[in-house]
Specification:
Elements (H helix, E strand, L loop, with lengths): L9 H7 L17 E3 L1 E8 L14 E8 L2 E7 L6 E4 L2 H5 L4 E6 L4 E7 L15 E5 L27 E3 L4 E3 L9 E8 L15 E2 L1 E3 L14
Antiparallel strand pairs: 1-13, 2-11, 3-4, 5-6, 5-12, 6-7, 7-8, 9-10
Protein name: DUF7907 domain-containing protein
InterPro entries: DUF7907
Keywords: Signal
Length: 223
């Protein structure tokens, strides 16, 4: 199953923009959100015409074990992992935090790792891998915040956006047979850590998230 999500939130700018019509004030209307330290990441297919069969819309991010402390990032139709946004207030503000999850016994941190544009998957050399492995994760892989009006997480699975010099715009580069997704945080409870844990929630930051991602009718919202 091929999955794709864009690294650069190029679509967010269009969602955020609002041009007054003949001096009339435009009042933004966005889905209600909450604050939660824990959240699950729910897939939203950005172009239903390219969705997979069965549909992955509403599926959740999970890891599939590939070795000691190693997991490939996948989507599941069942309940996914609980994540948290890790970092100081300053790190979160400047997108220098990371996305973590707890696993193992005793629990220790698993981070989301994203290969750079110069790194490639060993099995699929044309693709960039996403993993959920032991450690602090890739710094800067985080939930988007202000000034973006929607709160979501973007990650590369197989391809980066490409820059079009003629238009001075980033364009999505979705490989054939893949579908573009956005991972949206759905609020959940971050479990307390048992005594002796190697994980720490000291810098687990409350994040904006949605109560029920699948229940949101996105076309109803916008500026």
């Amino acid at each position: 199953m091929s999955l794709f999500a864009t690294l650069l939130a190029v679509g967010a700018a269009s969602l955020a923009s609002a041009t007054p019509l003949q001096g009339r004030q435009v009042i933004p209307n966005y889905p209600p959100n909450e604050l939660s330290t824990g959240f699950r990441l729910v897939a939203n297919v950005t172009d239903p015409a390219t969705d997979l069969t069965p549909s992955v819309d509403g599926w959740e991010l999970q890891g599939i074990h590939t070795g000691a402390g190693l997991n490939d990032a996948v989507l599941t139709s069942e309940t996914g992992r609980i994540f948290y946004h890790n970092g100081t207030a300053s790190e979160i503000h400047y997108a220098l935090g990371s996305i973590l999850s707890d696993g193992g016994s005793p629990p220790f941190p698993y981070g989301i790792y994203v290969q750079t544009a110069d790194e490639f998957d060993a099995t699929y050399p044309a693709e960039h891998d996403v993993t959920i492995n032991v450690g602090s994760g890739t710094i800067g892989v985080s939930l988007l915040a202000f000034p973006d009006p929607y709160f979501y997480f973007t990650v590369v699975r197989f391809a980066y956006d490409t820059f079009n010099n003629a238009t001075a715009q980033f364009e999505r580069n979705v490989p054939a047979g893949c579908t573009a997704i956005t991972l949206i945080p759905e609020c959940d409870v971050l479990p307390d850590l048992p005594e002796g844990s190697l994980s720490s929630h000291q810098f687990a930051s409350p994040s904006k998230c949605y109560e029920d991602v699948s229940a949101i009718n996105w076309p109803e919202y916008g500026p």
